[in-house]
């Protein structure tokens, strides 16, 4: 279970997170939405140790994460994807997975390991449906397949909690559908937090949604509850009206 209490992040006097409380039970697939600048990426940065909060606590599996280094948090079972790709194009799909899998292991276990692929790599390959592409170089993958490989690389590290930043951005309709199914499957035995803007995707695949706005949790609930909430409509529609007004200027 992940538990954030009264988390504050301040950049040069600007409150990027302003008293965030968030509880994500084990095995939940939680979506995080909010307009640009709401603090979504900052929230992920705080959980993964990239940004140190000015106040509050972040607890995961009963341990306080604040003050731990990024690699220590990875070892505790917290994995994230970045908006920029970490795939090595000249390596094959399976080599990329294998490299990711060894990242978290201590040296002695690597020295003892026999040649051949590990169980974690095999499971990541099967789960992401990339078996037929295992020996192809990652450079030939489609955008969607590459995103699945990145999720697979995370899975190969055996995290308990996965933090995914806009995993369906730029995907085709079919790829989005497959990704929705994949995330639901992964949440069978992991806790998953997904930052996503695509409302159609949320309607199809989201169970619980947390809306961030100006560094605070605005609303939390099912996608229907959240999208019917006047505060959420104001944050999104208010922005759209403002953008339309700017767009319509002569
Ligand atoms: N390192 C930093 N230094 C100064 N300000 C920052 C820094 N990182 C983020 N911010 C500011 O904090 C606020 C929250 O940023 P954040 O990237 O978390 O928003 P977001 O919800 O992820 O937005 P987006 O949807 O655009 O990615 C923004 O106003 C941003 O400009």
Automatic annotation (TrEMBL):
Molecular function GO labels: ATP binding; ATP hydrolysis activity
GO cellular component: plasma membrane
Domain ABC transporter as annotated: residue spans: 2-239
Keyword Cytoplasm appears in the UniProt entry: no
The keyword Nucleotide-binding is assigned to this record: yes
Pfam family, one: BCA_ABC_TP_C
Keywords for this protein: ATP-binding, Nucleotide-binding, Transport
Entries under NCBIfam families matching the protein: urea_trans_UrtD
Protein name stated in the entry: Urea ABC transporter ATP-binding protein UrtD
Origin species: [Actinomadura] parvosata subsp. kistnae
